[in-house]
Fold this protein.
Amino acid sequence: MAIIEEKDRKEIQKRLAEMAGPVKIINFTQELECQFCRETRQLLQELSELSDKLSFEVYNFQLDKEIAAAYKIDKIPATVIEGAKDYGVRYFGIPAGYEFAALLDTVISVSKGDSGLSESTREKLKAITNPVHIQVYVTPT
Amino acid sequence: MAHAIAIENDKVTADMVEATEFPHLAQKYHIHGVPKTIINEDIHVEGAVPEFRFVQELLKVMETKEWSH
């Protein structure tokens, strides 16, 4: 059974029409999938089918250790949204509910390589010259 | 917004973490309400805040001990 309902598919396709360049959705799971691992993979698979600009790759967290390490994946389910380059955009856990809408925004931004932030914010962010790791904890609502 | 900042600045990586799927992390960072943002372990931001406020908090990392190392 599909996770993304038929009526939502058209809306999502309409949003994804805003995409500029190609985006790769990279998912890390494991062979014996946890409930959320399975649902996350299926959700992303269905999403990736809604635009020609989206591609989907699945890796095994335990077997594809080098790739997981390269993307700094330390827990699953994990998802990387990669555009012209790896911008450091990650999801840990299922991007469902409100987070799914946010995921679409992120896919479009990554595809454009444009954050959409205000000029003053862009200017201020230039001060960040050392690595910074942001974690935003959310719950699916 | 965290993802937008990661897109804007190459030094920034941004994770959205589903708290209920990673209870050990939710416990570690004292997640009692969402969203809650953890910046480099040191800075904790409760709730959804406007862009300028978020950036204000983010820039505080430059005042932390690890920054100069």
